[in-house]
Amino acid sequence: MSAWLAVEGLGLTEGGTRIIDDVSLHLAAQRTVVLGPNGAGKSTLLRLIHGLLHPSVGELHWPQALTQAMVFQRPVMLRTTALANVIYGLKLKCYTATECDRRARQALARVGLEALAKRPARLLSGGEQQRVALARAWALEPELLILDEPTASLDPASSREVERIIGDIAAAGARILMTTHNLGQARRLAQEIVFIDSGRIAEQAPVAEFFHAPRTDAAKRFLEDETP
Amino acid sequence: MHEFNEPLVTAWQLVAGADAHLAGIVFLSLSISLTATLIACVLGMPIGALLAVGRFPGRRVLIVLFNGLMGLPPVVVGLLVYLLLSRAGPLGQFGLLFSPTAMVIAQAVLVTPIVAALTRQVIADEWKEYREQLRSLGASRSRAAATLLWDGRFSLSTAALAGFGRAIAEVGAVMIVGGNIDGVTRVMTTTIALETSKGDLPLALALGAILIAVVLSINAAAYALRGWAERHWG
Predict the structure, then answer these.
(1) What is the pTM assigned to this prediction?
(2) Which of A70, A101, B73, B130 could in theory staple to B136 by disulfide, Cβ–Cβ 3.0 to 4.6 A?
(3) How many helices (H) and strands (E) does chain A have?
(4) Which fold, B28-186?
């Protein structure tokens, strides 16, 4: 499997602190989960890859340009209906009004929210808002979907539903790159784990290998600390 | 006590009797200040949003400038607009001085910085929350500014309201550029100033009461609108 993204010597320094430190990485798996302790730089790495942040040094090589979408920990909903929130993302991609509406309704149906399409988005529950955010991302039919702790602030039932949707998006062909604090979720969703510690890549391994036989002490400690 | 009561009674009779002279003054006041506020919103809100979201040289200077201009003294604005519109001034050929149009211009100049500065504050707070999501979706900065203006429409009613409050209550600018001509450019505040100095308190008191009632009821309406918006849109 050839890499869809090669990261070369990536670094980000802010206020004298190295948040990302000389990261080189080949991402080839369709579903990659980035793990690591709080403050390790997981979210920052995702933002650098998505282009929300610009690296101080290093480069990203995309063998072929991929269309991307990103879902954040806290869903950001505009003060309008759930449907209009999904349409907003589509309109920025220059689809016609009827095409936007059709795609948005289809995306909402895929996340199981067609019944709530006309409801004000900000009055939905946290889990429902995150599903609207997933629909907004999915409607764009991204080749790469980046998710930053998409279930961190959700209850277990909502988390499972979000996880189910991420699985469906992957099954539809999108590459998935995400972070999570939920190790069970990482096991279920990932093919490959990237373990990052203090802004550096400590380990990159297939999911089974990482959980059964982590090679680095940092990863061993992390798994011990995080396993209930 | 008698001297204080009598003007009050007469004032009440003027209001209750819907005195035509009084109604004309109130109507002129409202139409001038509402028009000026509308112009200030059309100009000031996009300026405020671009100051919040944009990245261009001189942005910080402009932010300080607009914040500072919030406290612009009305008489100074009146004087400047007077100079602009006076016969020898650059806009003198239009013959606008001492007309309601001149008063609208003066109040719009006075209120635009207030609307712009308050809008910038509202949009800057929203931008913090929305920034990454909007950029991720590929919204340009000007598109983001437009999105946030619409999204913050209920919060921005406060900015418009502050502008209107300033316009309807000021006396210096409209006095200078309007000239306080009876039946033409006489508004509530200029009438109150004039009648009080003449010692005719009933009309002044009646107008003062109406002015306060107008400001209070518009504030109450805006408060109700925001409460409704909070419940319906979150």
Answers:
(1) 0.89
(2) A70
(3) 8, 9
(4) MetI-like fold (1.10.3720)
